[in-house]
Automatic annotation (TrEMBL):
GO terms for cellular component: mitochondrion. InterPro entries: Cyt_c_oxidase_assmbl_Pet191. The keyword Disulfide bond applies. Keywords: Disulfide bond. It comes from Linnemannia schmuckeri. PANTHER family: CYTOCHROME C OXIDASE ASSEMBLY FACTOR 5. One of its GO terms (biological process) is mitochondrial respiratory chain complex IV assembly. Belongs to the PET191 family. This is Cytochrome c oxidase assembly factor 5.
Amino acid sequence: MPSSCKEIRIELAECILKSDCMLKDGLSAKECLHSDNEYRIPAECTAIKRSFFECKRGMLDMRNRFRGNKS
């Protein structure tokens, strides 16, 4: 995975691990990220999740593919 998305992925993982969804509710990270449980994660994690999605989408966009993601 390119380094441009790697940092965001790590940040998202840390945010989910610290959320009440995992700590209090005992759900897995995958279950917390599922759309049915989106209300259980903080808004900060939701914003990071959106940034990660945009980064991954930018890797597939042919217009940006050769120029790289905007940092």
